C-alpha cells in the first residue's frame, strides 16, 4: 500500500512489521499505540543497503533530444548536489538512513560493486556549465546562466524548459528530491518542471520515442542478483528502463556476462561496463 497506509497499519497493530522512508518515521512513532512502552530506537530498524535493495533515479532518455547528447547528460549529473539530496531525504533524528553510491550494482555485492573505484559524480557547477556549453554548440541551442552569460550556440534559440515525470501520488521524499534537482538545474540555466502521471501511463513507455526525456522512478530487484537484476536492467533495454541505454559495446558484454563461471573474468567485464556507463551518464 501507500506509505500513509503502512504507517496506519503499523500504528494500529494491523501490521507487526512495516517499511517506510525516513520522512514518515516521526509520524509512525507518534501514532504508535505502544510508544509509552518502547523508545523510537526499539521499533525503528535500519537495515542499510542489502542484496535486495533497489535504487531511485532520474533517467535521461539517451535516444531523444536533448538528452541524447552525451555532454548534456554529463552537464546534468555534475549540476546535482548529491550530499543535499542524501541528507534532506534520508537524515532523521541525528541518524543518516541512506547512502550515495556508484550504481547500478550496490555495495551489498562487494565483489562486483564499482570494481574500478570510480568516484561519485562531483557537484561542480562550473564543470556542468562546461559540458552544457559543449552540448549547446553541438545541438544548436543556447542557455542563459543566472548571471546573464549566454552559453552554447549563442546565435541559436534558447533551449526549451524540460519536464521531469514521476508516478503519482507524490511522496514527501520525491517532492524534496525533485525540488532540489529543479533548483540545481536552474543554477546552470535549465528550467525544469515536474509532471505526475499514473502508473498506467508508464506502461505505454515501451519505446524510446514514447518515453519522456526525464523520468523519476525506482527499480527493485526480483531476486538478489547483481548482474541479471541490477546491472542488466540499467544498461540495456531488456527491462524498458526509461534511459533506453543501448550501446553495442555494452550489449555484447551483457550477452555473455551473466553466464560466465569465472568470477575474475566477470569482475573485469563488470568494470568495463561500469566505466562505459559512468561516462555515458544515463542516470542521476
Automatic annotation (TrEMBL):
SUPFAM superfamilies: Periplasmic binding protein-like II (SSF53850). Residues 4-232 form the Solute-binding protein family domain. GO terms for molecular function: peptide transmembrane transporter activity. Pfam families: SBP_bac_5. It comes from the Archaea. The keyword RNA-binding does not apply. Keywords: Signal, Transport. One of its GO terms (biological process) is peptide transport. Belongs to the bacterial solute-binding protein 5 family. This is Solute-binding protein family 5 domain-containing protein. It comes from Candidatus Marsarchaeota G2 archaeon OSP_D.
Amino acid at each position: 500500500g501507500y506509505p500513509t497506509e503502512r504507517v496506519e497499519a503499523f500504528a494500529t497493530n494491523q501490521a507487526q512489521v512495516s517499511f517506510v522512508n525516513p520522512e514518515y518515521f516521526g509520524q509512525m512513532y507518534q501514532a504508535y499505540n505502544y510508544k509509552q512502552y518502547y523508545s523510537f530506537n526499539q521499533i525503528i530498524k535500519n537495515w542499510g543497503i542489502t542484496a535486495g535493495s533497489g535504487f531511485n533515479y532520474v533517467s535521461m532518455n539517451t535516444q531523444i533530444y536533448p538528452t541524447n547528447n552525451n555532454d548534456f547528460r554529463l552537464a546534468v549529473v555534475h549540476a546535482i548536489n548529491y550530499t543535499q539530496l542524501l541528507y534532506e531525504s534520508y537524515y532523521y533524528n541525528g541518524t543518516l538512513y541512506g547512502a550515495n553510491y556508484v550504481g547500478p550494482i550496490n555495495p551489498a555485492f562487494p565483489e562486483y560493486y564499482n570494481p574500478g573505484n570510480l568516484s561519485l559524480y562531483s557537484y561542480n557547477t562550473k564543470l556542468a556549465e562546461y559540458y552544457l556549453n559543449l552540448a549547446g554548440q553541438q545541438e544548436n541551442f543556447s542557455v542563459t546562466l543566472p548571471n546573464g552569460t549566454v552559453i552554447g550556440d549563442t546565435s541559436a534559440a534558447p533551449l526549451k524548459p524540460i519536464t521531469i515525470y514521476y508516478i503519482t501520488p507524490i511522496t514527501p521524499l520525491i517532492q524534496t528530491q525533485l525540488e532540489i534537482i529543479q533548483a540545481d538545474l536552474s543554477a546552470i540555466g535549465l528550467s525544469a518542471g515536474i509532471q505526475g502521471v499514473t502508473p498506467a501511463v508508464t506502461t505505454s513507455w515501451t519505446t524510446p520515442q514514447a518515453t519522456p526525456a526525464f523520468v523519476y522512478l525506482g527499480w527493485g530487484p526480483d531476486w538478489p542478483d547483481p548482474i541479471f537484476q541490477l546491472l542488466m536492467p540499467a544498461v540495456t533495454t531488456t527491462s524498458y528502463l526509461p534511459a533506453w541505454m543501448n550501446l553495442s559495446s555494452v550489449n555484447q558484454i551483457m550477452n555473455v556476462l551473466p553466464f560466465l563461471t569465472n568470477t575474475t573474468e566477470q569482475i573485469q567485464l563488470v568494470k568495463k561496463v561500469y566505466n562505459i556507463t559512468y561516462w555515458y551518464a544515463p542516470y542521476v
